[in-house]
């Protein structure tokens, strides 16, 4: 058992020092009934090679996104992960460290968090950011709770353009908080009248940008309306790469920005772990959830960093804490931060531009297909098509041919039949020209079969 | 060596990434193009690699040495798990791929769920919570959903005074009032007091077991029965599960829900603050209320239940986006399969052995408020420092200069100047002995030369940091120097 | 260009400090004719993703050994590489360090080398070992040269059981050293009379154990004969895992042991880089080639390590050096050493026993196939079959079916027709039961076709 | 923190690897079973990971900081190359797989060979040498084979007095007598002296260019012509190719052979001592004598020529087992493709720029024996230390406390107390400036407080080590303490 350093001789000597006759003697406080479980129906220990074979079999039973063309987005984006990033986050001093409670020997993690907070603030156009949350969806829920704390109001409005899973997490999180969560129906044509719904009883309104259909919106008019009524504007960002190219929500007037950092931090990993980004205006600082890292000096006057403002947190405030969050997503925040450093101003901008160009070009080709309509609106690297039929069987048919063509509306909105002909398509730099050709041709063929079938 | 902030290292025009030219297109950004620069620094790859390498060298991890942070279970993190989590067939899966293309991933989740239920003897598990506190929330939400389904609007959650802050914080998030249960002189929940507090308004008891003093709640079965008899449910905080796994079946203790920190008990790396994963095992009573999504076996295939209308039970909602911390699942399952049923039982046994060994070696030099046997952590108070002028904090910082990460300090709150030591099962006897000798030497130093301890640490990248200043004048981000 | 930190502004400022007008001015000493090469017929810089795609294409055009059953040995053995090993050797402080010329900041590498030297000495049963050579074959050549220096004799005898490539490297290396290299023909039946060829004019005799056919030999009688005539016995080991189970050459009387460490250090990597192990008796220390690490103390009296006895080396001795070796294989030596530490006494022994058991079982099954003979002799994890036909087409046919069945005699000894029906088969712990079944069944089928064909 | 030897950490019975049971068989070991234990220590995986982590922390690499070791070209080692070298389709290839199953590997070798010949303007390349010195041997063997094929038994190799020790050592290995060519006051080969030494017995000239003083041999074309005219051949030592690649075509200089250290010029990591790879580019004269094996393109397929009877030319033999340092090839080609033709030219330009910049910044504080422009390294002598009592060694050790790896010291031998500084192109200007300032401060300290320099380093894991003791009483391995 390679992870256990004690030998039988060590165990005997230690029991002797303790004055116990056996390991079992140490468990005397455990009721006898629970202490001797029957044999588990589980295998005994195995070597690396055996475990690797098991996991290789799990892996083989999947089709990796990179095994062929992949145009899936919907809040999880496949971008290239630099090799140096993946090396650096595996360094034991980062990987195997705890939350930096002992700042003297955790300056590495702490300086990274300070840099991360700065990068998130810069990217979102807001003043302060925390040291990360679990993911974008939970960050969004925390933002709504925070808005209620700040405004002392009890109503939250969610745009229909918000990722339906994020909306569901918000609803769940606030279910017992004496807060009314009003979520608008999904609206691919951008007809929802958010401004008209702003009122003085509202704690916040949550808008995703780009929204779940990929559409970009100018949040400024909404922000003005919110400001007038003392409503906080929460902007949700599922693809932070977009912020390399578009005006950040903070500049458009958002008070809180939450985002999912996965797309710029690491592999898709089947949707988790991600990293929640959370930024806000300075004045809301003491109402923010999550860990915060701050600059200070040490006994010799040298610059250093510590976790700070912990009086907001559960280990001090207990039931009065701003959140119950404890473990967050430090390592993925590190990955995000390293990627920001590698990209820099110029790289982030260019990568965003490349994504946009490839998406625009692909959309241009797809919207020419007979029966296919591109839903109108500005977009970044993801867009929505309206097909002449239910998108799900089309997606399944293309998957059979090795093409992950996009997300069918049914997957996101099973109860909205009118959206079942929607196909969401994300195009990133990881798609090749051949991939894009395959998508266009594959979709044309699949729809041709459909049309052919319909014509019979 | 000092390492500047990344913002102080940048040079406009440097590049850390090379990108191809994209096609020439007419933008479709709707006039929302960024008008101002972001403000990020430009750096080359060598600078970036060196920056983070140097920062890492200012950190201490379990790879660096003993990390006896009580209640945190800082055990060895096998690299096999990192290798497996990076297999393209596991890492490079989109959460919205058609289910037919991710059968291996669904099987993996289902397999891990099977290990968790089998080891705990609980019938069901909610896999998606992202961390321990998130798991607590999931468990309490299931409890609340269950009680509400019964039409039972109970308002109170009982929490022992020794509990982690997450317990009351979670209960509050769930809309409950928190009442604190006093402890006994031997460090357990006062069962009589608890029974007196039970009543028609008590929704649940949240009890940490082994508790935060490192002791097993001997009366847990009696307690569970009493809570159930009063119409409440029992949430067990599984933060300290490393003492029990493979040796004690939680299902036999009568509890209804317990979260499992995969990043503690099952060794997925803490990464300086996460990510973790906090699946919650559930009793038959609570199982129907488990949140979405979850995986079921459907003939030969695995199926992901993502939407309410597909569910058999009454899911109370959704904890996070997608399907849980899949990358953490991979690591945890690899760890569990590596140790196996026999190894997990040996591991918890060794963890408990190591804690009792340190207690035995240190109890005459430090002061232990409770006698053993303890479970997987050894608790000391600061009475051994009385009159020396040195504090718990000084003692802990002194350990840094000895080459160790300090233990947990000043927690649990119910013990004065607490020092909570959790060595875990992955330390050798030589390592435990060396640590004990350092502690003994430090205790001597506290008596003979307390002033020197107050200066500690001297050999770390930083001496003690001014936390008051950080909180009073918060500087939470870099800003460009004036004039830039 | 992500590897180049200087910006155009930096370059201009630096040229200014230098007082040069342009980069070109710095190349003024280079003849004009050579200074302005025509445009290269090579692509310009590319990003990580593009380079990865190119290499993925190279990789796809190969069949990885682990993609199916693999029974290839012949001096390169496929063993499991522990994940912790591969992590540790990638740590920048090891990976990006130079040869440890500055011991104060290279104690990591130096202590590793000291531990490596000890492990090699223990494993080979000899007293001292150096800090590594390029590979087993070059180590073998250096051993012959060393034997000539020690004995001041000019004749070297190579057993026919020596890997033919190792023999060729020895011949090449000594081609201009005024040394006669006598290499005996390959001898699968172990009939060669080495003892009878020992004589007082011989510097050394080189014997491989297990030999290239996989056969194990007791070197003791040969060692005695050598000792009588003052001849050095050089033992070559291509599969050091065998030393976990069998009596090491040092204990059987070898004076120098050379080995290829790849099998216990890392992936096959198409045969390179490996790591040459080199051990000898203490009395030959000052005639050894290569780097040596020794224990000493620092100015405070603390134990420390340095490169030592460099007066043997080329940077001091120049044309009188024991070898011209400079760069060696430090990182692979580190990998080897980490694996030794992970395996330990018990793990190395058990891994060796497992390999042997699987090989014996597989041999037992294969020798029952009609027309197949197992060449007689003791063996470790590799053995030689005699087929009823040329082995090469059989191997090619099995490769078509996804089975890497072994090495056909023709590949090693193209000019020895009588060995073309030999098939070398290595069985390690990385083969599964299904792999071994596939080999037995595949070989039976292939030979059945052959027999069937012959019968027509 | 001190780290014991691995042998001092072991505990009998600990395990770092778990293995399955094998089948029960009757051994076929011929009675050669080991009779005595090996003597290796048993350890668990956590102990092993921590041991090597801690050892690594006592090392300095290019990832740690500037590593200006002259003549060693310590440049940034991209992690992309490590990633690619670990692709199973490249790492997990057996050298004896049927050639049809390794077409990608053969194509890769052929592609790399194409880059090397195109960049150097040389018609052929021998890929298999394992390192620079091995490449020298390969080149000289090809020369010797060529001359012998002409029936020309020349006996002498000329080597400039400033050459690396590997040059004369290699010539001696090849059976040649070495004659040393004097240098000129401006740091180049004395061409007149060289021409006087040429004659019917001179087989070859081995010339390092840029030479070890960091200077380009201006007369190289003239020199090559003279050697050729005298019937000899020219071997150019490519150790310093980083100054030229992509900017100066070696093929235009008239040389016949040159090795290329892939681990210097093309950034494959040095790994604390290797592995490297030293392919040798060859002129048309020498190409037919290239050693086995090599790759040829055969229609659409690639073919490995492993045996003499398959070869078109007259291969002089074989340098090592199998097909060269394939894993190093992968890394080098990835590096070359990443930088591309434009990037490689920029890289050599930046390397030369950085060296000249340091020379310009330091020449008034240290002492430079030759004026610039230099190529990719800046050479200083110890005249600036004259009268201070501090030596080149003290100065270099002082740099360690400043956070740097020292430069090459006391080489080349032709300069008194030489300090050879090679910054490479992968340092930022800020890094070069900081290094220059440290050097200037140290030079001041040498004048004002030389005694303090003699104590250096004080901040490294060790102070100066007793090398004399190590050599006089060699202890080259651990031995168990008496009584064990």
Automatic annotation (TrEMBL), chains A, C:
EC number from the UniProt entry: 1.4.4.2
* Membrane-spanning intervals of the chain: none
Reaction it catalyzes: N(6)-[(R)-lipoyl]-L-lysyl-[glycine-cleavage complex H protein] + glycine + H(+) = N(6)-[(R)-S(8)-aminomethyldihydrolipoyl]-L-lysyl-[glycine-cleavage complex H protein] + CO2
Could you tell me one molecular function GO term of this UniProt entry? glycine dehydrogenase (decarboxylating) activity
* UniProt domain Glycine cleavage system P-protein N-terminal: residue ranges: 1-441
> Which terms are listed as keywords in the entry?
Oxidoreductase
Q: Name one GO biological process term.
A: glycine decarboxylation via glycine cleavage system
Q: Which family would the database say this protein is a member of?
A: Belongs to the GcvP family. N-terminal subunit subfamily.
Which HAMAP family does the protein's record reference? GcvPA
Q: How does it assemble?
A: The glycine cleavage system is composed of four proteins: P, T, L and H. In this organism, the P 'protein' is a heterodimer of two subunits.
- What functional role does this protein have? The glycine cleavage system catalyzes the degradation of glycine. The P protein binds the alpha-amino group of glycine through its pyridoxal phosphate cofactor; CO(2) is released and the remaining methylamine moiety is then transferred to the lipoamide cofactor of the H protein.
Q: What is this protein called?
A: Probable glycine dehydrogenase (decarboxylating) subunit 1
Its ancestry begins with: Bacteria, Pseudomonadati, Pseudomonadota, Alphaproteobacteria, Rhodospirillales
């Amino acid at each position: 058992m390679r992870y256990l350093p004690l030998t039988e001789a060590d165990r005997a000597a230690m029991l002797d020092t303790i004055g116990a006759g056996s390991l079992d003697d140490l468990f005397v406080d455990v009721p006898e009934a629970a202490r001797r479980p029957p044999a588990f129906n589980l295998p005994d220990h195995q070597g690396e090679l055996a475990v690797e074979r098991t996991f290789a079999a799990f892996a083989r039973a999947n089709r990796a996104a990179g095994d062929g063309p992949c145009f899936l987005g919907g809040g999880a984006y496949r971008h290239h992960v630099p090799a140096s990033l993946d090396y650096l986050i595996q360094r034991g001093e980062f990987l195997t460290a705890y939350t930096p409670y002992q700042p003297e020997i955790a300056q590495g993690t702490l300086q990274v968090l300070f840099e991360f907070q700065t990068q998130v603030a810069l990217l979102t156009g807001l003043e302060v950011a925390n040291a990360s949350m679990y993911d974008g969806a939970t960050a969004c829920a925390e933002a709504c709770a925070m808005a209620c704390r700040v405004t002392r109001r009890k109503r939250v409005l969610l745009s229909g353009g918000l990722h339906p899973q994020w909306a569901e997490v918000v609803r769940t999180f606030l279910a017992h908080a004496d807060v009314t969560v009003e979520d608008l129906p999904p609206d691919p044509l951008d007809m929802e009248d958010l401004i008209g719904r702003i009122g003085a009883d509202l704690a916040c309104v949550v808008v995703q940008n780009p929204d779940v259909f990929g559409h970009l919106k100018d949040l400024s008019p909404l922000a003005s309306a919110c400001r007038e009524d003392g409503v906080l504007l929460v902007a949700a960002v599922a693809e932070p790469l977009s912020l390399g190219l578009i005006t950040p929500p903070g500049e458009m007037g958002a008070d809180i920005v939450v985002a999912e950092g996965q797309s710029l931090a690491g592999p898709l990993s089947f949707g988790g772990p991600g990293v929640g980004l959370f930024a806000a205006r300075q004045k809301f600082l003491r109402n923010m959830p999550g860990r915060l890292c701050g600059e200070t000096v040490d006994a010799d006057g040298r610059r250093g960093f510590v976790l700070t403002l912990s009086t907001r947190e559960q280990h001090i405030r207990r039931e009065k804490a701003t959140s119950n969050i404890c473990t967050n997503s430090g390592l993925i925040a590190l990955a995000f931060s390293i990627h920001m450093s590698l990209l820099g101003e110029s790289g982030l901008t260019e990568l965003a531009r490349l994504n946009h160009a490839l998406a625009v070009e692909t959309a241009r080709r797809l919207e020419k297909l007979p029966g296919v309509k591109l839903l109108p609106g500005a977009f970044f690297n993801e867009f929505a098509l309206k097909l002449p039929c239910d998108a799900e069987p089309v997606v399944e048919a293309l998957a059979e041919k090795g093409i992950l063509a996009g997300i069918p509306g049914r997957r996101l909105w099973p109860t909205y039949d009118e959206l079942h002909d929607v196909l969401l398509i994300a195009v990133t730099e990881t798609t090749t020209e051949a991939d894009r050709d395959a998508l266009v041709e594959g979709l044309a063929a699949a729809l041709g079969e459909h049309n052919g079938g319909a014509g019979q | 060596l000092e390492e500047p902030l990344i913002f102080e290292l940048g040079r406009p025009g440097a590049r850390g990434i090379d990108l191809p030219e994209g096609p020439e297109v007419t933008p479709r950004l709707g006039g929302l193009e960024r008008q101002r620069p972001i403000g990020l620094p430009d750096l080359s790859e060598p600078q970036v690699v060196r920056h983070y390498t140097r920062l890492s060298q200012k950190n201490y991890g379990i790879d660096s040495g003993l990390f006896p942070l009580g209640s945190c279970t800082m055990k060895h993190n096998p690299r096999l798990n990192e290798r497996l989590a990076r297999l393209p067939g596991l890492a490079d899966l989109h959460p919205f791929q058609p289910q037919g293309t991710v059968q291996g991933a669904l099987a993996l989740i289902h397999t891990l769920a099977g290990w968790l239920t089998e080891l705990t003897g609980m019938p069901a598990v909610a896999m998606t919570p992202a961390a321990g506190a998130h798991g607590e929330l999931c468990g309490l939400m299931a409890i609340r959903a269950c009680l509400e389904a019964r039409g039972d609007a109970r308002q109170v959650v009982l929490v022992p005074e020794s509990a982690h802050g997450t317990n009351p914080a979670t209960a509050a998030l769930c809309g409950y009032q928190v009442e604190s249960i006093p402890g006994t002189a031997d460090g357990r929940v006062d069962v009589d007091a608890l029974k007196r507090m039970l009543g028609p308004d008590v929704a649940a008891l949240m009890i940490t077991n082994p508790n935060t003093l490192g002791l097993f709640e001997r009366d847990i079965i009696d307690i569970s029965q009493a809570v159930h008899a009063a119409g409440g449910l029992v949430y067990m905080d599984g933060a300290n599960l490393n003492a029990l796994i493979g040796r004690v079946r939680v299902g036999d203790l009568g509890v209804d829900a317990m979260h499992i920190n995969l990043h503690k008990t099952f060794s997925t790396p803490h990464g300086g603050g996460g990510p973790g994963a906090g699946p919650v095992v559930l009793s038959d009573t609570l199982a129907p209320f488990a949140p979405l999504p979850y995986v079921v076996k459907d003939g030969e295939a695995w199926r992901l239940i993502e939407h309410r209308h597909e569910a058999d039970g009454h899911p109370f909602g959704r904890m996070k986006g997608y399907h849980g911390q899949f990358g953490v699942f991979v690591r945890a399952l690899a760890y569990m399969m590596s140790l196996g049923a026999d190894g997990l039982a040996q591991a918890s046994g060794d963890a408990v052995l190591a804690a009792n060994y340190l207690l035995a070696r240190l109890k005459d030099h430090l002061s232990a408020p409770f006698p053993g046997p303890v479970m997987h952590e050894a608790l000391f108070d600061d009475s051994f420092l009385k009159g020396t002028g040195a504090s718990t904090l000084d003692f802990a910082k002194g350990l840094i200069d000895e080459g160790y990460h300090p233990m947990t300090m000043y927690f649990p709150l119910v013990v004065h100047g607490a020092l909570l030591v959790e060595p875990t099962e992955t330390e050798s006897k030589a390592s435990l002995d060396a640590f004990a000798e350092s502690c003994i030497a430090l205790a001597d130093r506290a008596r003979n030369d307390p002033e020197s301890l107050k200066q500690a640490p001297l050999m770390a990248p930083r001496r003690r940091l001014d936390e008051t200043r950080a909180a009073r004048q918060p500087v939470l981000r870099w800003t460009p120097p004036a004039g830039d």
